[in-house]
Amino acid sequence: MMMNDMAQADTGAAAGRRIGEVILDLQNISLRFGGVKALTDISFDVREHEIRAIIGPNGAGKSSMLNVINGVYHPQEGQIIFRGEQRREMEPYMAASQGIARTFQNIALFKGMSVLDNIMTGRHMKMNAGLLSHMLYFGKAQKEEIEHRKKVEEVIDFLEIQSIRKTPVGRLPYGLQKRVELARALAAEPELLLLDEPMAGMNVEEKQDMCRFILDVNDQFGTTIVLIEHDMGVVMDISDRVVVLDYGKKIGDGTPDEVKSNPEVIAAYLGTSH
Ligand SMILES: Nc1ncnc2c1ncn2[C@@H]1O[C@H](COP(=O)(O)OP(=O)(O)OP(=O)(O)O)[C@@H](O)[C@H]1O
Predict the structure, then answer these.
(1) CA torsion, ordered 106, 109, 114, 116, to nearest 10 deg
(2) pTM given for the model
(3) Which of 5, 31, 146, 261 is most buried when burial is the number of CB atoms within 10 A of its CB?
(4) How far apart are the C-alpha atoms of 204 and 225, rounded to whole Å?
């Protein structure tokens, strides 16, 4: 759903949550860094509109998996099929232009820039007018800039951050910085949103807010979400399906209930103090 459909988001909510076809299919992915096997023969898929979690102990390969999906890492083996197209050698800019956005484990924002300007950077892939036109701010660039600003303001309203739109990001508390990072990813109007530990370091209230926003994004825009999260309560609450990694291997895959009762998962992960 496009951002300008936000006004009709309520009516589209039911459609947004209807889980559809497989849009991302990861087949037999193996990734090595020298002698370190980060991922070994991992296969799983992601269906349109679903919330898919990747869990596992530290070093299990979760972030590497996200980096494979958005083209930062190139696996030595395996295939990635996104919307029916094979894309093994995909680069990050290609992922972005094909509708994949992500947030990072450690916030990656421009701390000295305002919230608004940071979110504007999320529109970068959608800007058509040349840089010179933008610098000189005339004609096509001016029209485009107004359109981008409109989308960004819609995201700001949606994530309820109107009151901090002019504040430099570095001055905000951690939980709000995470929300701004989500806003920047949403500004790109992604079809597939990759969230790397969106709730890490947050207090209970901030976590509840972030959960609500993730569910709202999924519900109202129909955005497919793949997320890494350590908080088991959150994962089991908001995910449709969960894939479990351990030492770079897949040891579980299914609904939260299936995963919770999988003995291998309990032994490797849920039984630890993680
Ligand atoms: N760029 C890299 N160069 C070398 N080794 C790497 C690189 N990225 C990841 N690894 C290694 O791959 C393995 C998986 O790491 P990864 O960060 O994907 O795990 P993770 O499950 O996300 O861990 P965490 O929960 O601690 O973030 C680890 O052994 C890690 O040291």
Answers:
(1) -110
(2) 0.86
(3) 31
(4) 22
Q: Are 92 and 71 in contact (CB under 8 A)?
A: yes
Provide Rg for the chain, Cα atoms.
Answer: 19
The 10s digit of each residue's pLDDT in 19-51 is 899 999 999 999 999 999 999 999 999 999 999
Within 6 A (CB) of ligand 1 lie 33, 36, 38, 56, 58-64
Structure tokens at 168: 């430099």
User: Which residue has the least CA distance to atom 12 on ligand 1?
Assistant: 38
Say what the pLDDT of residue 3 is.
Answer: 42
* Residue tagged 């770079």 (tokens): 248
> What is the tens place of the pLDDT at every residue in 105-158?
766 788 889 999 999 988 876 665 455 555 555 566 677 778 888 889 999 999
Q: How far is CA 194 from CA 30, 114, 225, 227, in A?
A: 20, 23, 6, 6
Which residue reads 């009762």 in tokens? 261
Output the residue whose Cα is nearest ligand 1's atom 8.
Answer: 64
The region of weakest confidence among 87-96, 212-221, 250-259 is 87-96
Which pair of tokens denotes residue 202? 């947050």
- Write down how long the chain is: 274
* Contact call for residues 4 and 152 (beta carbons, < 8 A): no
